[in-house]
């Protein structure tokens, strides 16, 4: 899995950390960030679908890229 580096304001990181750990919803920061990205992308897809902005060709290309990565 590729690593990325992101600068995050201290206040946002503190908010994130409240949801990480034994008492939190996520095991670690990486899990929290991945879940947040997935949720945000799903929301953006829903908005695009409501506004008929989803491109069938782009969806097919994304599916093909996922299949190629699995091989």
UniProtKB/TrEMBL annotation:
Residues 50-71 are annotated as: Disordered. InterPro entries: Arc_rbn_hlx_hlx, Ribbon_hlx_hlx. SUPFAM superfamilies: Ribbon-helix-helix (SSF47598). Coiled coil: none annotated. GO terms for biological process: regulation of DNA-templated transcription. This is Transcription regulator. The lineage of its organism: Archaea, Methanobacteriati, Methanobacteriota, Stenosarchaea group, Halobacteria.
